[in-house]
Specification:
With 357 residues, this protein is of the alpha/beta class. The chain has 17 helices and 13 strands. The protein folds into 2 domains: 2-139 and 325-343, 3-Layer(aba) Sandwich (Rossmann fold); 149-322, 3-Layer(aba) Sandwich (Rossmann fold). The termini are close together.
Length: 357
Amino acid sequence: MRALGVLSQAYEVVCVCKQGSPFSLELTRAGYRVVSVARLWAAHGPAALLNPFRVLRSFLRVVRYLPVAVYTNTGPGHKHGVRLARLLRVPSIVHVHTLLAPCRRDRFLLSRADAVLVNSAATQRTLPTGVGSRIVHNSIPAMTKGVPVLKQEFGVEQCLAVTHVGTLTEQKGWEEFIHAAVVIRRDVPDVVFFAVGEAKPEEKAYEALLRAEVRRCGLSNVFFFTGFRREMQDVYASADVLLFPTRVEGFGLVIVEAFVAGVAVVSTRSGGPEDVIEDGVSGFLCEVGDVPAMASCVTMLLTDVAVRRRVVNAARARARVMFGEDVYAEALRAVFATVIGPRGPRSSGDRNSLATE
């Protein structure tokens, strides 16, 4: 969505999405023009042979906007985005936000994109051999000062708080978070822990296991599952330290959010966090699964206010320099200028850049 905001300053953005997808509804509410090409996504295999007009109809819905490029993010859409650009005979730009598993089809399609962007060095390393790319880190907008809603809600206003934010999946290192909490409590008895996030329907059994582990570890009175929270500034206002013990991560946007909100961070050498955190300066990095090291870093930040203040100040400065919206916008504009040509502010009658889901 941030990329579309940048592109809309120079182009009229037309978003090509599957009909009724959550993303298409969100884009419509945000005021973007959305073109539904549901039949294009279904137009392969026997169905396409039975009704070839599906492909033509979807193609005509898009071509009438006279696109100058196709911009697409990884996911099911990037495959269609590259193909669509080749059909339209315009450049394609693919932005990779996730770690890619080895896939011959990805190598084939990405090698045909005119530009490939990645959100971290870790993501870059997962690209197929021979695919060139440029790192464009994710950004977040300025964050307003939040209210410590979680501390108020759970009646722990006087306690220090360690927070983890993420989907309740094994990848995010929730078991390590729980076991680190046990160690931290030994040295910091007035600390509580917030687990901010929810499990997908297929992960509900894993959530039940986590809750059982919290009870087994004797943390029931100090460990709180908050569920999904939309107002992240309020989440960080209730946090003194963010512990993000992820096992593998393409970027780690919650780390940047914590930087901007003034929360000290401890994370792992799991890929993306190594791009975000300068170890020992703007935060601390531990080996994946090293619970004692994580607990030690968190304990130091909780008990040494001077160290915590120094880390927070360095993190805020790093966020401004590396992950600010202006930095992101300039990098994205530079890529489009290289692929399409320089472009000033958009005026009426401009041709369009396309975004595909």
